[in-house]
Design brief:
two-stranded parallel sheet; 10 helices
C-alpha cells in the first residue's frame, strides 16, 4: 500500500502490515528550469515585486481564505499571485473578497509545462492551507515544485511538512508575514541553487525507484 502523507500511512497501517510512506514529489528537472534565463509569465511580470505566489486549485476546502485576506491587508507592499482554477473540487468557493483586495491577483490556471515561467517571476512560494481533516493528510505537490524552482517556501503548519528542510511554517498571518519577510531579505541566487539541488532528490524517477524496490522486496 502506498501512502502520500504520514497521517494516511498511519491510518492504512491499521488495514495492512505493508505500507510505504511515499510523499508526493515533483518533476524537479522541469521546475529547476525556473533558475535558468527565460521568459517570465506575462501576468506575473506585470505585478509589483516582491511577488508571493500560490499555484494550485483555489478551493475553500483547502485554502485558508481568512488568513490570505489578513496577510494581504497586512502587507500592501507585496503582490500575492494565486495561479490556478477557482473552485476545482469545491464549486462553492467564493473568491469575491480576495478579488477585491488590490494586491491579490487571481491569475487563472496555466498549463503544467508553463508553471516554471510563473515561478521564475516569483520571490517566494506560499502554501496557505487551512487546518482541517482533509489537509491533515495532504503532502502538497507544490512543495518540491517550489523548491526545485529555488524559491523560499512558507506554509501553514501541516503534519506532512514537519521536518521537511527549507519549508518554514507559522499558524497565522503575522507569523507567515514575518517568515516571508525574513526569507525575502536573506534570499539570493546561491540559496536558490542550493534549494533546487536538494529538491532534485525528490523527483518522480527517485520515487519510482523506491516503489519498485518495495515491490521487488515482496
Amino acid at each position: 500500500v502506498l501512502a502520500s502523507a504520514p497521517k494516511l500511512a498511519a491510518r492504512l497501517r491499521t488495514l495492512s502490515a505493508n505500507v510505504l510512506d511515499a510523499p508526493n514529489v515533483a518533476d524537479t528537472e522541469l521546475f529547476s528550469t525556473a533558475l535558468q534565463p527565460g521568459p517570465i509569465d506575462a501576468a506575473m511580470a506585470e505585478l509589483e515585486p516582491p511577488r508571493i505566489v500560490f499555484t494550485g486549485a483555489i478551493a475553500a476546502t483547502k485554502l485558508d481564505v481568512a488568513l490570505l485576506l489578513d496577510l494581504a491587508r497586512a502587507r500592501r507592499d507585496w503582490s500575492f499571485a494565486l495561479v490556478g482554477p477557482v473552485g476545482l473540487g469545491d464549486p462553492r468557493t467564493d473568491v469575491s473578497e480576495l478579488a477585491a483586495e488590490p494586491n491579490v491577483h487571481l491569475l487563472g490556471p496555466r498549463p503544467y509545462a508553463q508553471l516554471p515561467q510563473v515561478l521564475r517571476g516569483a520571490d517566494a512560494g506560499l502554501i496557505p492551507y487551512a487546518r482541517n481533516e482533509l489537509t491533515e493528510s495532504i503532502f502538497p505537490m507544490k512543495v518540491y515544485e517550489y523548491l526545485a524552482a529555488g524559491l523560499p517556501v512558507v506554509s501553514t503548519p501541516l503534519p506532512a511538512l514537519e521536518g521537511v528542510p527549507d519549508v518554514a511554517s507559522a499558524p497565522d498571518a503575522d507569523g507567515i508575514a514575518s517568515l516571508l519577510a525574513a526569507a525575502l531579505a536573506e534570499d539570493d541566487l546561491e540559496r536558490r541553487r542550493e534549494r533546487s539541488r536538494a529538491a532534485s532528490g525528490h523527483s518522480w524517477d527517485r520515487r519510482m525507484e523506491e516503489i519498485a524496490a518495495a515491490i521487488d522486496a515482496l
